[in-house]
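seq as requested:
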Amino acid sequence: MLTKELTESYKATTYRVPSLNLDIRIDEKNPLLDFILKNKNAETWAFITAWNPESRELSISENRDRNQDLLTQLKSEGFAIYKGIGIPDAGDWTPEESFFVPSISQKQALELAKEYGQNAIVFGAFEKKTVLLVLTSSLKS
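struct tokens:
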């Protein structure tokens, strides 16, 4: 379940795409990201992972197997994919291997997040602030 503390942890994270020399932060605009999107003719993007479903820590091996399944699915759907990593500011959890996916719609990204048991994803659109999209089924009442 997604708690306020967990939401704050997600927000206190750098979402890094090493091959693009790109660091993304929630609630911020990013001129480099907009430049990349424009060059890729993309309006939207998501930063997604299959690691640690519902924030339950799995072994690195299990997480990598899950991410390989996600990668295979993204490739089969024809997306351009860039390896990423979510790096917490506080260092209170292991950085998570992830994927930066330009041109994925919000609906598609949320469906994948649900399929892989994620509480939330990082999402954005050209010239807009990056947002944390929470899956409503993961909200703690």
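Strands lie at 13-17, 22-24, 44-48, 82-88, 96-102, 120-125, 131-134.
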